[in-house]
Specification:
The chain has 16 helices and no strands. The protein is mostly helical. Among the domains are: about 90 residues; about 130 residues, no CATH class; about 45 residues, no CATH class.
């Protein structure tokens, strides 16, 4: 078998590779060094961010070529930026001259100046801010008070039946609380915007009424305050709370209704003066706090209680007859002798005469009967 021809390897020969690696320099080395010194003058113009690129290059030829290329690009970019900035300045100056001379620009300037002047006038001073804070503090406190007391109203409205008197009182006051909260929030908005107030004298009275409602109710019904304290341990005090709810549901609220209907500032001032004077007197001489509290409560109850005359049904006796003029003109019974215990007999006769029996009714007669049977007749036999 004839040997196969071996394929020639592609690529350059060793002689060609050696020829490429050889660097051709001129015969005079001094001239080359002078040229290198002239070309390295560009290094003084290199900015800081470009020094790293130059340090990475390996040979002098690469340094020179990179240096030349970088500075050519740098100079071209700088010249283009300068030309564009000059052109933009010229266009802006031309545009400004045209805009300033235009009527639309003049109107805009006038509007801006007017707005600046109005803003200067509308800036609130520190004194005005302090006045706003003082005016709104009362209404903010009222809103916080209603927010704190709202769960108390909701609890008692759930527990009381709608037919009880306390439910009606609490429901009416709850609606007033909601009205006062909305009114105070509107008033705060108006104060901040320098608007006129919408609160009248009757609204001020309702605000004071809402603020003092719980004090009045707790003075007459201390069970309400005790319930609020016992609700912290609801499971352990279920029986006590049930008894308290029952007493409050069946309580007579006529006194509170009279006080709330006739409530005014004079009542509040009188109560505060009386309570303060009593507190001062008892605190100086007292030794036991519980005794003082009970004594204060009794004094307040005595002053708050008003005598209400109610009609009491009494038995008919001689005193009533004498006062009403029912005594007979002739007193023959008192003159007749021989009757023992005349006064007792007279009272008994008057009592029997006043309490006369009703009309007797008979069952209708049936067939064969002469008359009907009387209902009230009871036939009995003695053995």
């Amino acid at each position: 078998m004839a040997p196969k021809r071996q394929k020639k390897l592609l690529g350059k020969s060793q002689n060609k590779k050696e020829m490429d690696t050889v660097v051709h320099l001129s015969g005079d080395e001094d001239e080359d060094e002078i040229k290198l010194v002239k070309r390295t003058e560009y290094k003084d113009r290199i900015p800081e961010n470009l020094e790293l690129d130059l340090m990475e290059s390996r040979t002098t030829a690469e340094n020179l070529s990179k240096n030349i290329m970088i500075f050519s690009d740098y100079d071209s970019d700088k010249s283009e930026d300068e030309e564009s900035s000059v052109k933009s300045k010229q266009t802006l100056s031309m545009g400004k001259d045209n805009e300033e001379s235009s009527p639309e620009r003049i109107l805009l300037k006038k509007d801006i100046n007017n707005k600046v002047e109005s803003d200067k006038h509308s800036i609130i001073s520190l004194d005005e801010i302090s006045n706003v804070k003082t005016n709104t503090s009362e209404y903010i406190e009222m809103i916080n008070y209603i927010d704190n007391i709202e769960p108390v109203f909701n609890h008692f409205l759930e527990k009381f039946p709608p037919t009880s008197q306390l439910f009606k009182i609490f429901f009416h006051t709850y609606r007033l609380c909601m009205y006062v909260r909305s009114l105070s929030s509107f008033e705060i908005f108006r104060i901040y915007n320098n608007m006129s107030t919408i609160i009248e004298d009757k609204d001020k009275k309702t605000i004071k009424f809402v603020r003092n409602f719980m004090d009045i109710v707790c003075d007459h019904f201390p069970e309400i305050e005790e319930i609020i304290t016992l609700l912290e341990d609801k499971e352990g005090n279920e029986d006590v709370l049930k008894d308290m709810y029952e007493t409050l549901i069946s309580a007579d609220c006529q006194k509170i209704v009279n006080i709330l209907e006739n409530w005014n500032e004079d009542y509040q001032e009188n109560v505060s003066k009386i309570s303060d004077s009593e507190d001062d007197q008892l605190i100086t001489d007292s030794e036991d706090d519980e005794y003082d509290k009970n004594l204060l409560q009794e004094l307040r109850d005595e002053q708050s209680d008003k005598v209400t005359e109610t009609h009491v049904e009494r038995r008919l006796d001689q005193a009533i007859i004498d006062n009403k003029g029912y005594t007979p003109t002739s007193k023959k019974k008192k003159k007749t002798p021989g009757v023992k215990r005349r006064h007792q007999f007279q009272k008994a006769s008057l009592r029997n005469r006043s309490n006369g029996p009703g009309v007797r009714r008979e069952i209708p007669a049936q067939d064969g009967e002469a008359r009907g049977i009387k209902i009230n007749v009871v036939k009995s036999r003695k053995f």
